[in-house]
Specification:
Layout lengths: L9 H14 L6 E4 L3 H10 L12 H5 L8 H4 L3 E4 L3 H14 L1
Parallel strand pairs: 1-2
Protein name: Kinase
InterPro entries: P-loop_NTPase (IPR027417)
């Protein structure tokens, strides 16, 4: 099972853990980050919807998303991958998936 979603709050995160458990699937959480704020803003502002009728967030939405910091005990394990270099990020994600 592969899910591509923003999970800013613990309630969303536990939902995926519960779904994986119910399906008997292994859950591997990869959190992507972008430490360069200017590049992050550029990517958000230049994003176009790839799903019909899907509204992509504006930069102000991203800034006000209400992200609750990750807590290992509450949210479970995760691997953080910096996406500044897209190809390195992809290699890191594929390596992680291959090794688990």
């Amino acid at each position: 099972m592969i899910v591509d979603a923003v999970n800013p709050v613990p309630e969303a995160r536990v939902g995926w853990r519960s779904t994986a458990y119910a399906a008997g699937a292994k859950l591997i959480v990869i959190e992507t980050s972008l430490t360069d704020e200017d590049e992050h803003r550029r990517r958000v502002e230049n994003r176009t919807p790839d799903i019909p009728d899907h509204r992509v967030p504006a930069w102000r939405d991203v800034q006000q998303d209400g992200w609750v910091p990750w807590n290992l005990e509450r949210d479970g394990s995760r691997t953080v991958i910096d996406t500044t270099d897209n190809f390195a990020a992809l290699r890191g994600a594929l390596t992680l998936l291959h090794e688990t």
